[in-house]
Design brief:
2 strands, 365 residues, 13 helices, mainly alpha
């Protein structure tokens, strides 16, 4: 039954995003809210609409509102009375946290939009990210379970996680469709785990988010006619971090080890890996790590001979392979889980080796 609910949420988010994105794109052109290729690390030649984050946010917000109304009024198709009662009861208890999470999402969208047009200094950007993260942790009851048995420590880890993902997705959004497609895969995988756990709210939220991003991806894929901008990357980075933290990866009825807690790190391995790489490279070269360049994983694949479209497809396939490959850790015994974790680490290691050897050889030709 949860699967049907998730499919319904996905379809709603997808339909809303497919309808809203071209409308927002037209509005962006009318208001002259465009991304013009003025910076040397950008490769698009013509202005592109820059309100994609608002399209995804609107589809997401409308989907949540419609879902709440449908649940309260019993309009959800194929839902048993027992599940209906559980959904309504869950909505009542989740009203305050959901409001805080939605407020944080709106704030992330807002300061990201401001940064699109009046770039903020790193300290101000980090401050706003910290405020958004604190809203989610303090009022949204978002906690990244690390088995630390200390509320303060888990709160600190969660704040760091939220800020890390906002920056990671912001860095990762460097080619047409790259971030949107990778996030759609992550939302789908988190949704599968939430369904297995019987998490009604998180499974529906993950599916809705996946649908909203997929609808946007249709217009953001190469050649993109609309970008998500910093507003979209901060909003979606925040959203995927919240969902990852709210998803239960350890379940006493399924999990036979505590290794499933590592799953979100592998589901989001490529954005996190990309962030670590570019920060290390920029720091090594004595450059501010927040200034964009062409050292991202996608750019390195292009330097290895792939087209930009092929590079994006390869990243998506790698994200899907690592994400699906780590799923059995959830229900496998310790030996199985340990082997899969090592396999995923080796997969990232292979990607690192290819990038640091083959792309560098291409650079020196």
């Amino acid at each position: 039954m949860l699967t049907k609910l998730a499919v319904f949420a996905f379809a709603g988010g997808l339909a809303a995003s497919l309808l809203l994105t071209p409308c927002v794109r037209s509005l962006a052109w009318k208001l002259d809210v465009l991304d013009r290729p003025a910076e040397n690390h950008k490769r698009h030649r013509q202005p592109v609409a820059l309100l994609g984050g608002f399209a995804v946010f609107l589809a997401w917000a409308i989907g949540i509102t419609a879902g709440i109304l449908a649940a309260v009024n019993g309009w959800l198709p194929g839902v048993t009375p027992e599940l209906q009662e559980a959904i309504v009861s869950g909505l009542r208890s989740a009203a305050k946290p959901l409001g805080a999470i939605a407020s944080g999402a709106a704030l992330a969208l807002g300061f990201g939009f401001y940064d699109d047009f009046k770039p903020m200094s790193a300290k101000w950007k980090f401050l706003w990210q910290f405020i958004v993260a604190m809203i989610a942790v303090v009022w949204g009851d978002v906690r990244f379970n690390c088995f630390l048995n200390c509320d303060l420590a888990e709160a600190a880890v969660t704040v760091f996680w939220l800020m890390l993902m906002m920056n990671s997705i912001n860095f990762f959004d460097n080619m047409d469709g790259l971030a949107a497609g990778t996030l759609a895969i992550a939302f789908a995988l988190f949704g599968v785990i939430a369904v297995l756990n019987g998490q009604i709210f998180i499974s529906a939220l993950s599916a809705l988010s996946c649908g909203a991003v997929c609808g946007f991806w249709f217009y953001n894929a190469n050649p993109a006619t609309i970008f998500m901008g910093d507003s979209g990357s901060h909003f979606l980075g925040y959203l995927v971090a919240v969902i990852a933290a709210k998803t239960t990866f350890f379940h006493s009825g399924y999990s036979l080890s505590r290794l499933p807690q590592l799953m979100p790190l592998f589901i989001l391995a490529l954005p996190l890996f990309d962030t670590a790489m570019v920060v290390a490279i920029r720091t090594w070269n004595h450059r501010p790590f927040w200034i964009g360049d062409l050292n991202h994983i996608s750019h390195r694949f292009v330097r290895m001979g792939l087209s930009r479209l092929q590079a994006v497809i390869l990243v998506h396939l790698l994200a899907l392979a690592i994400g699906i490959g780590i799923l059995p850790v959830y229900w496998g015994n310790f030996a199985t889980a340990a082997i899969l974790v090592v396999q995923s680490i080796l997969s990232v290691g292979i990607i690192t080796f290819l990038q640091l050897t083959l792309s560098d050889k291409v650079d020196h030709k």
